[in-house]
Amino acid sequence: MSKVSKKSLIATAMVGALALAGSNIAAADALTDLQKAEAKIFKQSAKSQAKINSIYEQTQDLLAEYRNTVDEADVLRGYNDHVQRMVDDQKANVVSLQRQIDSIDEFKQGVVPLMYKMIDTLETFIKLDVPMNIDRRNARVANLRAVMDDSNVTTSEQFRLVLEAYEIEAGYGTIFDAYQGEIDLGGRTLTADFVHMGRIAFVAQSLDAKHSWLWNNDTRAWEELGDEYLKPVTDAIRMARKQLPMDLTKLPVFAAGAK
């Protein structure tokens, strides 16, 4: 090979090397571009994933809120049904109460006149009865009449008081009692001790225990007793006051129908 040829080969080799180097540089630039494109795509993908995650979280929150709303609606629906049943029951009670009020008004129309008749009857009975505790009994009748005129007292309370007065009057027939009061001896009044055994015997004794009297309900007057009754009457008064133990004693009585 000539020297010229060797030079030409060397030049050719150098050209090839340069061509190869240029090829490598071009490949490197393409790789860089590819990497940049991949990085950009990855970055955009990350942003998209972040958006997807955010949308998913919002969706979960909205779903939970929806479920809570549905649950609350069910609770409210159940509560509303409960309230409606209560309202219906109250309406029924109102209707029932109105019927009762109407019946009470009808009852008042019948019972009020009856109470007045009962009070009149009670007053007449006391006037004809043995007059033990007469002042207290007359005061009770006067109080009943005042109660009947008091608008602040209910009809039921008025009726209760009238019945209570009748019960008290009935009790006088079984009470053994002694008390102190004024005795009217036909124009002469003095303080005396009174004792009664139900309605069987009603006697009085002066405070000095020197005089005793028996009530005669037929003549509506007091009749003086003999001295033989002074001690029995004194003992009866003391037994009624629990100052002596209960024992037999002798008290005068008027036989039924006796004149």
TrEMBL record:
InterPro entries: UCP028069. Residues 1-28 form the signal peptide. Keywords: Signal. The keyword Signal applies. Pfam families: DUF3450. It comes from the Bacteria. This is Uncharacterized protein. It comes from Colwellia psychrerythraea (strain 34H / ATCC BAA-681).
